[in-house]
């Protein structure tokens, strides 16, 4: 913890609540979440179905609005921003990797990746250099001019990752990025993300239900019924050891999960 | 839920979606009914217009309405069926048999179609009076005409449209019975993926498209030769094929070059316009070609009709520069003058001295009647006539450029010799003018010479059979409103002599003819416009649904509604403006070719009708934008 406070806080959520439904039939999905993510962290969010993982991600990613609470990204308070400001903020400061890639079918790999910086004032040559760098890191330089339907799932997800990183966002949100991949492609992708996280000091928050995927993280936060249940740090542990830790927490968590749903 | 309840539910849902389709259907039914009524009940119209041809004109118009309605309905229906594929598949998935689904669709469509048909006929009956009023206004007839409900017309309309609705039902049956479930569920995801075009071949094909269109244009600029039909067919074929290639290859190739030049940095606007258009170019080539050709046809038809109507007066003036003339008939002229004085009309009466004699223009020509007119006397009437120099003449051919084939062989200046009683006169024709100097009804080719020449000829040539001195009395009524009454007086004086038409009668007759044509062409054009606009709208509606996912992605990535709409506006600009632009160009050349048959300048009326068309056309573009906005808004 000491080490963390010294580093820059990238994301800070304070007592975030989210409820759905109209009066009389309100369902609280998030019941007061406090979370702090510092620069360069690779945070995994786990929890059983219905625990509020995706809602939390959506709220933190400004795609959805919190009912109560404050969310800071850097030193910006995003909980009171208007829709247009939020869009702008999302485009400039956040990166997204989705489970089903969310690439535009009509654009090539390169065009998809360069889309987020298309509205910016970046020079052509600079954008090209940026693309070459990220494409080399993710190993997709070869397929730059192919369309999404012509490449494999793993390549698509790497394209999606490149798109999330091209504009150097403050934080990257990944929602089940390996959900649609086979285990080989999944571990290849996670290895690359881990590598990028270390090399470029990118802050990443990943929602997943796969303990293998979350074992690549530096910290895993467990949610249960809309509240923080527990968290484990990898520290200097090996991935295998960290994986066991995660499984242990999950076993406890999963035990009463059956009743809670 | 019974089948009938299901039908009612899906009908309610569908009318909300396809209101434009039903509007177009009702409108065309109404119009067909009105045309049929006018055709069947032409007694009223015939009485006022006095020409039996009009019945067949309405008949032809009705057939054109049917053709476009068939194309439109089959096309729209196939779009809707594609859109509803998933629904049809779902019905089958939950266990409805083919025949039940077919019954459901047929009941629904038959009910909607019959509803539209009844509303169309009823509405047509109600507004037919308005249409007749418009027609009467156009052709310049004041007295009101009543139009009774025609049972024959109603029956004809109902039979014809039932057959068309039957066609769409067959189409539906085909869809239900001959498509697999899997196809039904993936129908919406169809769309070809843009491939890198084989550069050399597609560049070549794209060029061929442009060359074909250019060839059509050039051919249309040439004077229509003896093989008129062949030439027209070649022009049409070459232009249509060229247009298809333009959409299928040229534009795709062009877009591909542009996109390649961007080097992957496409930008949001192009990602939302260029990329999806390229994505669908193959599938859209047919419909865009159809829309372009229909637009071009409609534009040409409307522009020419409106031009004819608009220039009816100037065309008549070109034929009949004087309101009334008397040839060698001073007695009638005098009594006419007296009658005009009595009626208190203001008029200008001037005599024109002329000579009619035998002569030949050009080497290869047989001798024919030439009419020499004194230029100064014509000029005295305040007309724009240049007095030729001594020994010179100007030929007022009165012939439209396109029809004056023989002129191509005559080079100016051209000498003419007259030979009468041993006396020879030489005249040099310096140029030709495509108007008449004297009313066309007078016999002989009109040559304008200085009045001195006329006098000289009269003195030099004693009376002989080859030579005839002519005295023409010309009348021009100052006040337009008095022309009609004067025309009545003239008819009495010349005792209905058909050989001496007067301006007013001629003008009114052509106004009637062209008024009827613009009436028919205008409403036909409206139907064509609504059909093509609707087809584009439906296609865009479907595309918008298919692109919904992209909008969601873009909004998640942080692109605002406004930025996305910016890209969509650009796409709609392309989708609507490209067919319209090409259609406009086609029709401009067609009008240009046709304008050679007219005496007056058609630029202004053509511009007007094209602007009106463009304005209405863009209403559909705005409708699609509204639809897109709704989808983009709901995307996140």
Can you give me a brief rundown of this structure?
The complex is a heterodimer of chains A (261) and B (636). Chain A is of the alpha/beta class and 261 residues long.
Q: Largest interface, per-chain counts?
A: A-B, 38 and 27 residues
Task: Please give the CATH class of chain A.
Answer: Alpha Beta
N/C terminus separation of chain B? 34 Å
Q: Using DSSP, what is the number of strands of chain A?
A: 10
Q: Strand order, biggest sheet of chain A?
A: 6-7-8-3-9-10
Order of helices and strands of chain B: HHHHHHHHHHHHHEHEEHEEEEHEHHHH
Tally of helical segments of chain A: 9
User: Which shape of chain A, going by the Cα principal axes?
Assistant: globular
Average residue-wise pLDDT of chain B: 82
Main sheet strand line-up of chain B: 1-8-2-3-7-4-6-5
Secondary structure class of chain B reads alpha+beta
* Sheet/helix structural class of chain A: alpha/beta
Describe this structure in words.
The complex is a heterodimer of chains A (about 260) and B (about 625). In chain A, a hairpin with a 2-residue loop joins strand 4 (about 70-75) and strand 5 (about 75). In chain A, about 45% of the residues are buried. The longest helix of chain A is centred in the last third of the chain and has 22 residues, at about 240-260. Chain A has helices spanning about 1-5, 55-60, 85-95, 110-115, 125-140, 155-165, 185-200, 210-215, 240-260; strands at about 10-20, 25-40, 40-45, 70-75, 75, 95, 170-175, 205, 220-225, 225-235. Chain A has one domain: P-loop containing nucleotide triphosphate hydrolases (Rossmann fold). Chain A has about 260 residues and is an alpha/beta fold. Chain A has 9 helices and 10 strands. Chain A is globular, with a radius of gyration of 18 Å. Chain A starts with a helix and ends with a helix. Chain B has an 8-stranded mixed sheet with strand order 1-8-2-3-7-4-6-5. By secondary structure, chain B is of the alpha+beta class. Chain B has 3 domains: about 1-190, no CATH class; about 195-320 and about 500-520 and about 540-635, no CATH class; about 320-495, no CATH class. In chain B, strand 2 (about 345-360) and strand 3 (about 370-375) form a beta hairpin. Chain B starts with a helix and ends with a helix. Chain B contains 20 helices and 8 strands. Chain B has helices at about 5-15, 20-40, 40-50, 55-85, 85-95, 100-140, 150-180, 180-185, 200-220, 230-260, 265-270, 275-310, 310-320, 330-345, 375-380, 450-460, 485-495, 505-555, 560-595, 605-635, and strands at about 325, 345-360, 370-375, 390-395, 415-420, 425-435, 445-450, 465-475. The chains are: A alpha/beta (about 260), B alpha+beta (about 625).
């Amino acid at each position: 913890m000491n080490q963390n406070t010294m580093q820059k806080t990238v994301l800070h959520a304070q007592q975030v609540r989210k409820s759905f439904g109209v009066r009389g039939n309100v369902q609280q999905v998030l019941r007061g979440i406090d979370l702090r993510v510092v620069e360069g962290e690779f945070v995994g969010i786990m929890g059983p179905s219905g625990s509020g993982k995706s809602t939390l991600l959506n709220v933190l990613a400004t795609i959805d609005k919190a009912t109560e609470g404050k969310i800071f990204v850097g030193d910006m308070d995003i909980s009171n921003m208007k829709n247009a400001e939020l869009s702008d903020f999302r485009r400039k400061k956040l990166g997204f990797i989705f489970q089903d890639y969310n690439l535009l079918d009509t654009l090539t790999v390169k065009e998809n990746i360069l889309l987020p910086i298309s509205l910016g004032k970046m020079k052509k040559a600079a954008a090209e250099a940026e693309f070459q760098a990220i494409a080399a890191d993710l190993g997709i330089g070869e397929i730059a001019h192919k369309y999404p339907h012509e490449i494999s799932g793993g390549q698509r997800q790497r394209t999606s990752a490149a798109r999330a990183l091209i504009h150097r966002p403050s934080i990257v949100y990944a929602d089940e990025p390996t959900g649609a991949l086979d285990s080989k492609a999944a571990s290849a992708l996670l290895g690359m993300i881990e590598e990028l996280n270390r090399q470029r000091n990118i802050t990443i928050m990943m929602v997943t239900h796969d303990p293998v995927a979350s074992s690549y993280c530096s910290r895993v936060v467990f949610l249960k019924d809309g509240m923080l249940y527990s968290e484990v740090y990898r520290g200097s542990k090996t991935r295998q050891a960290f994986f066991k830790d995660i499984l242990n927490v999950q076993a406890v968590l999963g035990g009463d999960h059956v009743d809670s749903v | 839920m019974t089948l009938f309840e299901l039908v009612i539910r899906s009908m309610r849902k569908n009318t909300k979606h396809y209101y434009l389709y039903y509007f177009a259907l009702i409108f065309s039914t109404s119009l067909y009914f009105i045309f049929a009524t006018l055709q069947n009940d032409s007694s009223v119209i015939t009485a006022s217009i006095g020409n039996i041809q009009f019945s067949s004109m309405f008949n032809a118009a009705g057939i054109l309405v049917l053709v476009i309605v068939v194309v439109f309905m089959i096309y729209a229906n196939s779009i809707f069926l594609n859109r509803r594929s998933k629904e049809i598949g779902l019905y089958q998935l939950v266990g409805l048999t083919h025949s039940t689904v077919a019954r459901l669709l047929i009941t629904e469509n038959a009910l909607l179609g019959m509803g539209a048909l009844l509303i169309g006929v009823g509405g047509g009956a109600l507004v037919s009076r308005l249409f007749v009023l418009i027609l009467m206004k156009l052709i310049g007839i004041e007295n009101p005409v009543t139009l009774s409900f025609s049972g024959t017309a109603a029956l004809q309309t109902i039979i014809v449209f039932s057959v068309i609705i039957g066609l769409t039902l067959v189409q539906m049956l085909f869809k239900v019975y001959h498509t697999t479930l899997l196809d039904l569920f993936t129908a919406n995801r169809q769309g070809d993926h843009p491939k890198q075009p084989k550069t050399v071949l597609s560049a070549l094909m794209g060029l061929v498209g442009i060359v074909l269109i250019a060839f059509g244009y050039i051919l249309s600029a040439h004077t229509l030769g003896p093989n008129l039909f062949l030439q027209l067919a070649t022009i049409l074929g070459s232009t249509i094929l060229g247009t298809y290639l333009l959409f299928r290859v040229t534009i795709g190739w062009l877009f591909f070059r542009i996109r390649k030049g961007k080097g992957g940095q496409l930008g949001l606007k192009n990602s939302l316009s260029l990329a999806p258009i390229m994505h669908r170019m193959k599938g859209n080539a047919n419909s865009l070609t159809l829309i372009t050709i229909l637009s071009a046809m409609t534009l040409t038809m409307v522009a020419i009709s409106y031009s004819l109507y608009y220039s009816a007066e100037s065309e008549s003036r070109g034929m009949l520069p004087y309101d009334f003339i008397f040839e060698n008939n001073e007695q009638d002229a005098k009594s006419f003058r007296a009658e005009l004085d009595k009626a208190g009309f203001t008029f200008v009466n001037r005599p024109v001295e002329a000579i009619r004699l035998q002569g030949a223009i050009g080497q290869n020509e047989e001798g024919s009647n030439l009419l020499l007119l004194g230029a100064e006397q014509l000029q005295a009437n305040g007309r724009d006539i240049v007095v030729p120099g001594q020994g010179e003449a100007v030929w007022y051919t009165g012939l439209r450029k396109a029809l004056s084939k023989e002129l191509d062989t005559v080079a100016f200046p051209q000498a003419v010799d007259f030979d009468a009683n041993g006396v020879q006169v030489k005249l040099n024709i310096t140029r030709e003018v495509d108007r008449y100097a004297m009313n066309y009804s007078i016999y002989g080719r009109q040559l304008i010479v200085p009045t001195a020449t006329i006098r000289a000829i009269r003195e030099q040539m004693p009376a002989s059979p080859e030579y005839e001195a002519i005295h023409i009395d010309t009348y021009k009524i100052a006040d337009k409103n008095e022309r009609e009454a004067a025309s009545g007086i003239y008819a009495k004086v010349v005792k209905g002599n058909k050989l001496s038409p007067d301006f007013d009668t001629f003008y009114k007759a052509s106004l009637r003819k062209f008024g009827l044509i613009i009436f028919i062409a205008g409403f036909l054009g409206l139907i064509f416009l609504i059909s093509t606009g609707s087809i584009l709208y439906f296609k865009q509606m479907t595309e918008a649904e298919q692109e919904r996912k992209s909008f969601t992605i873009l909004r998640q990535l942080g692109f605002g509604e406004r930025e996305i709409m910016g890209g969509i506006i650009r796409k709609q600009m392309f989708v609507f403006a490209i067919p319209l632009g090409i259609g406009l160009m086609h029709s401009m050349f067609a009008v240009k070719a046709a304008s050679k048959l007219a005496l007056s300048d058609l630029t202004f009326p053509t511009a007007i009708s094209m602007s009106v068309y463009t304005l209405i056309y863009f209403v559909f573009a705005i409708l699609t934008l509204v639809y897109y906005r709704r989808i983009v808004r709901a995307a996140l």
